[in-house]
Structure formats: structure tokens, C-alpha cells
């Protein structure tokens, strides 16, 4: 019987209606075989425990483990190896960065990430990228992940038609899986995944939903066998992998085949997640499907964006998934996409989420609550999208990242990062939801902000204040997340720097083994 006994921890109140108050008195928390079995003062070590670990928290703050409900983990592991283009403010900035990288590493393919051309004054061309890159393949992935700017060599290598414009949406998603033919797969090895998981654990993350475009159950089992059994992982599938999942008879919540052979019959940390559907595009690529045209519609082939699937195609996918016991996670950025997705949920009875829900009508927020559809949102996106939204969606900005509407309407709200679009950092997401600004400016539509308690509750996978029966997924903090400040800016800065002393998954330490905890 494996037992973890945490002594003298302050339980941070988490859950609906929580109002932050004075720090509570420290208590002990016992975890046995992966579950919290006792909470109270001066708990004894369980008499049947053969290998009890006793940790003195010394008054630190204890919260349920944090979740990131939207991660592209393979892309996140690769992010550190890519050319960072987040600071590029023009095509010229980007091509200069490419030229510098090639001068430093001649002949090596360049994979860039993070430019946001939606705010640039003109469209880019393949020919200007060719001019600085020659025959070396160059692929510059937009910061929203929905398009890429490739040179001619890269287009040919990835078997795409030569053109003088960027590659968008479905064509790009299909090509992304072939990038390893350019750069190899060292960045997505089990060792690379392990490093990414350990980094997440250091921030208090105990679980994530992986929306990576490639791979499947066999890939995840291979990682599990090779040291990636660190956190809880829900593996999603896309339409291309749905037949494989159905062939394995996997339902949402089922443990992936083979896990029991690797880490034991009681291990439920690696499970099947939802079917992921990308129903429209993005703001930066101007492919998010909207009810009204973009302010710069004269530049666009589709003035209001467009759906990636017809209504019948969307309903068919939802019907298949629902009949097989799979939840559905439907990407919808624009308000037209959100409305269409909700109609499909209503027509099919499918369960699941709207991913992003970046712009929506108030009526659709209420409809989401009525249908029991979750809103899986990424607050840190508002930090990057603020200025572009004001420019091309204008007065509709008041309906963007409408977290307050959704909570007030009774929508189940969960937070994530969409890493690598935003960093895999739950405290950044929480801070963004609370403060809604990344600079000296006032909060952007502060009327839609969350309280710290609400943002924290949306980050714990539905688990409230640590109690008996909860999973032994726990995080010890060196500071009180509910510390009070005079301004939301001060509150946001406090949250972004929240120090994590230790993280436990199913009662096992995944971060903090070397921390002095008494």
C-alpha cells in the first residue's frame, strides 16, 4: 500500500461560489493508492503502509492539480528548436531573421514559428522568401498554427503545388505531418516529450488533453513505455484517425490498450479523449467564420471567413462519435462557427466542448449552457489578439473572450493554452483571465474578467477544495494565490510568477523531489 502524507498544508478553497478569505489553518492530507483518504489535523501514518512518504509542507498552500485542456504536445516539444518569429512586425522582419539563421547554420532547413501576419500591412509572397533562402527549405508557421509561409524548395519537398502565397487550413494541416521528412523527429522523441511533461509538472500541471495532429494510441503507448508516464493524458483523435479509434472500440475515458502491461492494471492516467473537429479557421489567418465581414474584407477571398466543413459533414462526424461513446471537441473561433457547432450538438445529442469560443453571441453562450456543452478557452490568446481584434472585428471585440457571460450563463468553463500558440503555463492563463492585459494598458473589456477563484476553479478539471475521495493529484504552492492587491495588474503579476514547490500525480511526486519540504 503506497501512502503519501502531507503535513501542515493550508487547503486553498476551490469551487463554485468560493470567496477568498484569510489563510486557513494547516491540516494533514493522506493519499493512499492514488486517492485522498483522509484530511484533518495530526493524521497518523496508515498502519498498513509499507513505503509511506511523509512531507512537511510547513504551512504551504495546497490546491488540486492543474489541467491544460488544450495542448498540441508534439508541436510544443518542437517549439524550442524553431526560429522564434513572434517579434516580427513585417515580412521584412521575418525574412531578415531567416537570412540570419541561414548565415549561422548554412544548409540546415529553417522551421519558424510565431509570426502574426494578420497585423502586417501587406500579404507575403513565396518569391521574397526564396530570395533570402535559395535552395534551403524554409517553413514559417503562423502563430495561430492555421497557415504557413513556405519557400519553393519546401513546397516541392512537401509535395504541394508551387504558388506565391501561403498555405492555409486543411492543406497546411495535412502537410504539417510531413515536416519530419525535412527535419527528422528528434524534437518529438519520448525524451523530448518527457522534458515537456516535466516542465509542465514544474508549473503544477497534473494532466492535459493532447490535440496533436499526428500519431495515435500506439504512439502514445510507445512514449509511455519510454518514460512519459508522468502526467495524466487524454489523447484526442481527428477525423482521419476516427476509424482506428472505432476499430479499437475506444470510448472517451477508456484506458488506452497496453497501458496495463506497462504500468499496471490500476493505472488510469493515459486515456482516450475526444474527437477533435476544426470547423473554421482563425483570426490571424482571417479564416474564422463570422456572421459579418471582416473590416478589411476587400483583402479577402472570403469576406466573412468560411467553414471547413459543411453542416451535414459536421453533423455526420458528431453522430459517428456520439454513437461510439466519444465526446467531441469542436474548434470554433468565429461567431458563425460557434452557432453552427451548437446546432450540430443539438441535432445529434453529442456531448463535448466548443474549443476557443473566441467570439460568440450572448444567445449562443446561453445555448451552450442549455445543451451542456463545455467552453474550453485559452485566456492567454486575448493578450496576443487584442490589437488585431480591434482592427478587423472592431465593435465585435466586446463579444470576444466573453468568460463572464459564459460563467454567468452557467456554462462549464475550462482553461487551457493551445500550446504552442500560447505557452503551456496555467498561471499565465489564469492571470490573463483575471487581468486581461499584457502591458501597461487597462484590462481589455474588463467586464468579462474572472476572479482568481473562478479562474482557478476552471483549471482543476472540476475538482474543488482537496477532500477525501479526490485523486491524489496535488500541488503545493509557496505563495497564496488569493493574496489581495489593489489592482488587477498587480494581481496578474503575482499569478504569473506563482512559485510551485511540489506536484503529485496519483500520490507520486513528479516535481519537487529535490525541494526542501521539511
UniProtKB/TrEMBL annotation:
<dbReference type="InterPro" id="IPR011059">
    <property type="entry name" value="Metal-dep_hydrolase_composite"/>
</dbReference>
<protein>
    <submittedName>
        <fullName>Amidohydrolase family protein</fullName>
    </submittedName>
</protein>
<feature type="domain" description="Amidohydrolase 3">
    <location>
        <begin position="53"/>
        <end position="511"/>
    </location>
</feature>
<dbReference type="Pfam" id="PF07969">
    <property type="entry name" value="Amidohydro_3"/>
</dbReference>
<dbReference type="InterPro" id="IPR013108">
    <property type="entry name" value="Amidohydro_3"/>
</dbReference>
<dbReference type="InterPro" id="IPR032466">
    <property type="entry name" value="Metal_Hydrolase"/>
</dbReference>
Amino acid at each position: 500500500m503506497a501512502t503519501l502524507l502531507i503535513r501542515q498544508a493550508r487547503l486553498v478553497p476551490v469551487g463554485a461560489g468560493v470567496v477568498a478569505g484569510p489563510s486557513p489553518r494547516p491540516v494533514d492530507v493522506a493519499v493512499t493508492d492514488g486517492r485522498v483518504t483522509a484530511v484533518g489535523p495530526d493524521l497518523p501514518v496508515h498502519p498498513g503502509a509499507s513505503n509511506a512518504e511523509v512531507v512537511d509542507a510547513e504551512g504551504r498552500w495546497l490546491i488540486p492539480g492543474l489541467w491544460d485542456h488544450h495542448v498540441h504536445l508534439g508541436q510544443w516539444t518542437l517549439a524550442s528548436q524553431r526560429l522564434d518569429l513572434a517579434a516580427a512586425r513585417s515580412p521584412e522582419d521575418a525574412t531578415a531573421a531567416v537570412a540570419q539563421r541561414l548565415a549561422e547554420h548554412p544548409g540546415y532547413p529553417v522551421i519558424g514559428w510565431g509570426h502574426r501576419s494578420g497585423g502586417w500591412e501587406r500579404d507575403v509572397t513565396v518569391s521574397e522568401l526564396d530570395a533570402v533562402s535559395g535552395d534551403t527549405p524554409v517553413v514559417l508557421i503562423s502563430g495561430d498554427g492555421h497557415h504557413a509561409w513556405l519557400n519553393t524548395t519546401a513546397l516541392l519537398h512537401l509535395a504541394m503545388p508551387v504558388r506565391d502565397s501561403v498555405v492555409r487550413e486543411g492543406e497546411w494541416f495535412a502537410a504539417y505531418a510531413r515536416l519530419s521528412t525535412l527535419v527528422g523527429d528528434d524534437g518529438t522523441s519520448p525524451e523530448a516529450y518527457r522534458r515537456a511533461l516535466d516542465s509542465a509538472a514544474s508549473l503544477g500541471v497534473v494532466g492535459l488533453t493532447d490535440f496533436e495532429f499526428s500519431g495515435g494510441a500506439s504512439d502514445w503507448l510507445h512514449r509511455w513505455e519510454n518514460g512519459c508516464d508522468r502526467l495524466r493524458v487524454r489523447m484526442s483523435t481527428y477525423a482521419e484517425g476516427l476509424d482506428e479509434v472505432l476499430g479499437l472500440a475506444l470510448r472517451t475515458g477508456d484506458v488506452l490498450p497496453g497501458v496495463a502491461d506497462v504500468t499496471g492494471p490500476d493505472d488510469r492516467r493515459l486515456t482516450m479523449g475526444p474527437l477533435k473537429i476544426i470547423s473554421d479557421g482563425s483570426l490571424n489567418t482571417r479564416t474564422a467564420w463570422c456572421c459579418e465581414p471582416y473590416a478589411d474584407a476587400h483583402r479577402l477571398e472570403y469576406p466573412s471567413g468560411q467553414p471547413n466543413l459543411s453542416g451535414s459533414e459536421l453533423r455526420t462526424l458528431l453522430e459517428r462519435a456520439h454513437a461510439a461513446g466519444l465526446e467531441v471537441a469542436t474548434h470554433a473561433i468565429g461567431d458563425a462557427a460557434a452557432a453552427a457547432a451548437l446546432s450540430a450538438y443539438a441535432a445529434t445529442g453529442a456531448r463535448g466542448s466548443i474549443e476557443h469560443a473566441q467570439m460568440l453571441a450572448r444567445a449562443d453562450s446561453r445555448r451552450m449552457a442549455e445543451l451542456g456543452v463545455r467552453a474550453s478557452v485559452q485566456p492567454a490568446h486575448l493578450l496576443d489578439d487584442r490589437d488585431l481584434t480591434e482592427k478587423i472585428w472592431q465593435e465585435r471585440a466586446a463579444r470576444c473572450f466573453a468568460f463572464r457571460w459564459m460563467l454567468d450563463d452557467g456554462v462549464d468553463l475550462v482553461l487551457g493554452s493551445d500550446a504552442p500558440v500560447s505557452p503551456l503555463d496555467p498561471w499565465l492563463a489564469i492571470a490573463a483571465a483575471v487581468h486581461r492585459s499584457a502591458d501597461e494598458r487597462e484590462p481589455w473589456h474588463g467586464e468579462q474578467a474572472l476572479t482568481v477563484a473562478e479562474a482557478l476553479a476552471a483549471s482543476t478539471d472540476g475538482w474543488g477544495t482537496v477532500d477525501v475521495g479526490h485523486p491524489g493529484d496535488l500541488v503545493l504552492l509557496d505563495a497564496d494565490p488569493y493574496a489581495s492587491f489593489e489592482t488587477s495588474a498587480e494581481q496578474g503579476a503575482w499569478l504569473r510568477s506563482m512559485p510551485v514547490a511540489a506536484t503529485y500525480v496519483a500520490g507520486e511526486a513528479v516535481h519537487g523531489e529535490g525541494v526542501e519540504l521539511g
